[in-house]
Task: structure prediction
Amino acid sequence: MRIEERMEISKSMIYGAPLIAIFLTACAGACLFLLMGRDPFSSLHTFFIAPISTLDGLSELCVKATPLILIGVGLSFGFRSNVWNIGAEGQLTIGAVSGGAIALIFFDVESVFLLPAMILIAALGGMIWAAIPAFLKTRFNANEILTSLMLTYVGLLVLSFLIHGSMKDPDGMNFPESKLFHEAALMPLLIEGTRIHLGFLIVLFVVAAAWVVFSRHIIGFQVRVSGLAPRAAVFAGFNQNQTIWLSFMIAGALSGIAGISEVAGPLGQVVPSISPGYGFTAIIVAFVGRLHPAGIFFSGLLIALSYLGGENAQIDMNLPNAVTGVFQGMLLFFLLASDVLIRYRFKLRN
Amino acid sequence: MHSLLSLKNIQKEFPGCVANKSVNLSIEVGEIHALLGENGAGKSTLVKIIYGILMPDKGHIEWNGQRTYIRSPIVARKLGIAMVFQHFSLFDALTVVENIALGIPFGLSLSKLAQKINDISELYGLTIDPHQEVHSLSVGERQRVEIIRCLLQKPKLLIMDEPTSVLTPQEAHKLFKILKRLSVEGCAILYISHRLREIRALCDKATILRQGKVVNECDPSKESARTLAEMMMGSQLTVPKRQDKIKSDHVKFSVKNLSSYSKKSSFGINLQNISFDLRIGEIFGIAGLAGNGQLELMKMLSGEVFCDDPETIKLSGQPIGRLSLSERRQKGLFFIPEERLGHSAVADIPLWENGLLSAMRSQKLLNWGFLNFKKSIEFAECIVSRFNVKVVGVGYNASGLSGGNLQKFIVGREIQQKPNVLIAVQPTWGVDAGSAAAIHKEILSLAEAGSTVLIISQDLDELFLIADRITVISEGRISRAIEVVDASVEEIGLLMGGSNNEEDVEEELIL
Result:
């Protein structure tokens, strides 16, 4: 038996592969539950269906997916142009800190401009944090994978320093938490009684805008050409450093907005751990979504579902938290496997 | 009496194409056998099967009349098959003898091996010093090292893949003498080349492949270069003719004292005081063997690398030496880099998007930064129909086009934008004869219409066919420009070999 390249790559299978991967994940998950001596169907139901069978559950899904999709779309620009920004988690943190600082500085201001200002400053904060690896890359050719990743830890320590210091609530019994934001500094809720907030509208806008930019705008063209053929990008007159800056700035801004949408959204204050690793999970989201804005939207929802399902499985079925990781892992595995089979086929030796 | 090697019904398929289709070929002892065909005709696949790199899907190989399976190059070498590849596999930092020792399985002391190398190089006139480091050797000398490495194995069949593409005409001539001598001694040679004149002079027999099939066998000395080319193409060849045109003395594009110092690596070529003037309506050729500074020159002419002094390069009298590539393009300076996929075109985007690469500004294909789909597609379709590019539609990716068709599209894209000055590197490299003729015709008519064309090429035939004046780049310097009508291939060849001084050349020509 040998593996050989397929003559033609089926277009429909490229988009069908994620669906096949989901189906196979469900099958493998059922087997896993069966081996553990549980009813596979009700277990799958608990994991995949129950979390989103109520309005509340659906809104939670959107809340969880919001930062994942925002960051995923931002990273996809870089990943398409071979700029490997791994530091979205740090950019998210600095964005959240800077936007949160605005909320705390203007704590008594009840203006409609407060929230837009917070979002703007958060985006700027993320961009400044992303500017460091971009500068090091363009000026000194420093590897952006290392610099952006290491800056994540610096960013988390900046948060820790501030939250144990100047950002700490003076009346907070010395807990390392900021004051709770006022109404004007919070993301307005889209549906009363749930937690779904303005951030999700931003997500919809960003996905649509990114889609247009990728397929119809010169920036998207520049990013695609730079990734596929760097020398052709030079031939087209695209500046390589400009592409690097562009990728980092887009990712930084969107990560910063993701940060503020957490702080001014479900959290409502600055806390020591703002994100449970959204910045890293978003890398998976971006690739599962084929680096395409629409794909990233759905993969963001899917990965968010795996978080919710994992929580549900812990509560209802007494399963360990590891079940979330197992399902995310299986999903990636099946996706990569079907990717291989799209491009190659097995042939029995004649 | 059996043939030395015979291939019986060899078939090899790759995804998407049949590379070899029931190929029969036999080579006799001491025969110089040419394998001819356009790019993609299946020559390389066939050679790889003979040398054991690939296994055929169907059919078999007989060696001295016995059925053999050549499973790997090791088996091939044991049988007595040796091969000189187009790209050499030598370590720059090692000496000749060290390089050869690496490729030879039996343990032999370096001094004994050096002695053997000396014997062989004397015997065949392959002058080489076994203790010289490879990076200091010229390309021709490196090829000699590869040949000596093969000869040490006392081969019965020597395969040579495009050996003269890196040689000056004089070096090629020396190589032919060696090959003829080997053949007299009984070593068969399988010779692959595009250069039909060489094949006519050298080979006893030729097998012609087209689309993976043997279409003809002939005695090349009894054919003309034209009939051979037509057998390869399967159609009539129309060679474009240069028109006599009115000469203009008006300088359009000039380069003055262009120099470069590569700081990064000691293997790069420094350009030294390059100066030339191009007139309106002129086709100017720069000949030279690969690696003599052509790439460095193209980078500076195109603006990928800036000159220190803006006055170094002038377009219509204006200094442009420090303008970026796009700024130069806006002034009507267009480029065709050497490599198609990855430089002048992107494989995995549709053809119409490839049209955008150089034309988005000149053809106004952008509206406020948004791609104008309709205009871009029209532009690409216009190129396809005007330049006769064979493609199903402009929505298909560039990777689906054959080399010749893609090159026609790229050349068409630049010509369609009505360049003032067009700079092309190897515009017909690896392109089949029919497409090459079409590209030459377009370049000629562009010049007739009053544009200035600079062609940097290793292919002397190409330059003699279309250029008005010709110069040679060697080790980063260029020689005085010569009118093509006054130039001879020998003269240019000597300049290519590094005789920079024109007096030397004249002397050598007299001798």
Remarks:
- Residues 169-184 of chain B form the longest helix (16 residues).
- The longest strand of chain B covers residues 17-27.
- The mean pLDDT of chain B is 85.
- The domain at 5-233 of chain B is CATH 3.40.50.300 (Rossmann fold).
